[in-house]
Structures are given as structure tokens and as C-alpha cells.
Fold this protein.
Amino acid sequence: MSENGGAVKIAGIAIAALLFLSFIYVVSSTPFPHASYRSTELLPTEPSDALGSEMSSFLWNFRGLDLIMQTLILFATAISCLALLREEKN
């Protein structure tokens, strides 16, 4: 392995570790919202009229986590495509 290939490998590992640690930080620092029920049952007795607005507010308030996951999926897709299209050396 050449010196340049080793540096690229170390940089890739550092970037992957940084992304992983930032994901862990975001997941651990934001509390997961829980629904308040009217009774001790798992399902509320009557459907809530505000369910759409509650779901919408959750998606808008926690969109940072959504953006991180989308970025992770895009990077994984790009890496997979590059791995499939690389030339084999004999």
C-alpha cells in the first residue's frame, strides 16, 4: 500500500468516526417525545383531533436527526456505487 493510500484510509476512518460520534451525540442529547395517555392503557380511549399537528410538530422539531440520517444514506449509496464501479487491478 502506498503512502497516499494509507493517508486516504486514515482520513476515511476519521470521517466515519466523526459522523458516528455526531450521530450518537444527537441521539443521546435529544429526548424522544412520548405521548401522554388519558389512562394506563396503551391506546387512548378516543382518537385525538390534534394527532396531525402533533406528528407534524415532531417532524419539524426533530428534523436535524432526519437530515443526519438522509446524509448517512446518501454517503452509503455513493460509497456503494463507487465500490460497484471500480476497476479491478490484476
Summary: DSSP finds three helices and no strands in the chain. The helical segments are 3-29, 51-61, 63-85. The mean pLDDT is 78. Residues 51-90 form one domain.
